[in-house]
Amino acid sequence: MKETRLKKILDKLSETSGFITSTELANHFNLSKKTISRDIRELNTLLNKNGAKINAKPSLGNKFEVTDSKLFEEFIRTEWYKHAFEHDDRNNPQYRREYILSELLINKVYVKAEDFMDQLVISRSTFNMDLTRAKDFLTKFQLEIKSRPHYGLYVEGEETNFRKAILKLLNHSLADQQTEGVMEDIKGVLYSEIKKHNYVTTLYSLNDLVSHVYVSVLRINKGLELRSDHTSFDKSIANSSEFHVAVAIAQRLERHLSISMNMNEKLNLTMLLISRITPLNSHDAYIIPNNINDLLERIVAAIDEEFNISLQNDLDFRISLGLHLKNMGNRLKYNLILKNPILEQVKSDILPFQIATFISSLIGCEFTTEITEDEIGYIALHINSALIKKDKLKKKKDILIVCATGKSTAILLKNKFENEFLAYINTLQTLDALELERIDLTKFDLIATTVKLNITTNVPIIEISTFLSGNDVESIRNRLKSKEEINYLKTFFSKDLFFVHPEGQTATEILDYLSGEIANKFAVSKQHYFEELMKREALSSTAFDNLIAIPHPLNKVVDDSFVAVALLREPIKWGQKMVSIVLLMNVDPTKGNKSDFLYQTITDLLSDRLKISFVQKAQSYDDFVSKLV
């Protein structure tokens, strides 16, 4: 097992009876003082509970001391191993795959199969399965695992593709004990030089830059620099202002990390900067090129035609998306990867992500390349902002909270209401029960009260607990939805497209089964419908983290709106996730103006684990609908 950094620091401190400064520790472990200080605080918190401490004095440094020998000895004997070593899970196929990839991509040139089997303590057959998974991963980057007699396995491919593959793995198995410190140093250099040269960037873009540069440093340290035959750089970028920033960054990295960056490395860094930093107070930075303006026209027209949502006159949307597409064009031009750290959260907003996926084909045609799921997620953020601005989803309500236990409770309830129902609220007022007589209740759409009210009014009243329980939240949400909306929602679901435990053990089999049922109901080609579903899955998996998949055809096949439901007997693998509820959505926005309410209902379901468990157990159509709405 690998030793953790905490163990290495404690071992170093234990070697001497005197003080060691943080600077000495930082130099010894090749880490920043900030990282060492944080580790010492973490270590001290652990030791203080277990009979020891690190005595830190600003003028002297850090000294290890035992305060209770019996307690400390017991801790070392029974608990310390949990903190002293990295604990891998060799029974986990994902871990084994990443271990194989990291050894081949980073740590060694050749590795024998027998060595992998010994290190992972697995059989030949298990290793062969893990190797197949590793090969599948590398195929996405045009890399290939090959075997050389007497030497072992190795990876063959272009250097630029090696770096892309390593970048993909960076947040998993490749982070060793010194990674964090090196990345912090890189981040400091990048931020300092970007700011010095009067550029700005976002935190996400800065962190993404750090990852890219870190991978470059790893490869340079292995003697694997970018060469002219590795790259197809547009040499004109050497005349760009970003190139001067890249040169300044390279010079500092060379001094700080004892490396040498050739011209190709500097050009590569320039390309990374071009799509991630913006000149401060530069007029050119906010000019949208004609080709992007033309693309925006096609995008808003397509959204209007396909989803019946007009964004033609939303200038903020056109400017924000236009500037994003301008920078995105630079990334695509230079084949650069931009990770989206909030992709899963973005995907849970179904309608924006569905629209973004739909228009990604238009964008891909403009830039003659396929748009990644990470990039689609960024586009969805702009669409989501536009939809929120249009306020399409709900007619907002005026709500009165009646409380009899004082102002503090009223404030607490008001805060909880705002957290749970903000999207439904127009105005929210709190009132003591004794003051009801002096207020006009007819101006409210709903009264929520913690005490029984002896009043006569046409306004709906709902009694709630003082601390707003889960049942209260569900009851209020149902009251806030109009009867018209609920009845309309039910029209999307039908008994003949509701299936409990349908046949199929894979995502493909389930989609094939549902395609057949839909084809029978609407008299369309099963094969055509199935192909459109698979085209959409090829863009990005429609599975979510909470056992739900929401597939839909990429292009319209059926001129109708419906949701086909499949509740599976056991969870099945759907992309990289497990799924037990399938909601196949086929929505034609031109057939009604409340399909957005359907999207909101499904989005609410995705974030409600309790409701998911209820829906999952439904045994009939009526049971399912009642639990959903």
UniProtKB/TrEMBL annotation:
The record, for InterPro entries, names: BglG_antiterminators, HTH_11, Mga_HTH, PRD, PRD_sf, PTrfase/Anion_transptr, PTS_EIIA_type-2_dom, PTS_EIIB-like_sf
Which example biological process does GO assign this protein?
regulation of DNA-templated transcription
Presence of keyword Transferase: yes
Where the record annotates domain PRD, the positions are 177-283, 287-393
Where in this chain does the record put each PTS EIIB type-2 domain? 397-488
Spell out the Gene3D superfamilies in the cross-references. 3.40.50.2300, Mannitol-specific EII, Chain A, PRD domain, Winged helix-like DNA-binding domain superfamily/Winged helix DNA-binding domain
Q: Which UniProt keywords apply?
A: Activator, Repeat, Transcription, Transcription regulation, Transferase
Q: Name one GO molecular function term.
A: protein-N(PI)-phosphohistidine-sugar phosphotransferase activity
Domain PTS EIIA type-2, which positions?
Answer: 491-629
Protein name from the UniProt record:
PRD domain-containing protein
Q: Which organism is it from?
A: Amphibacillus marinus
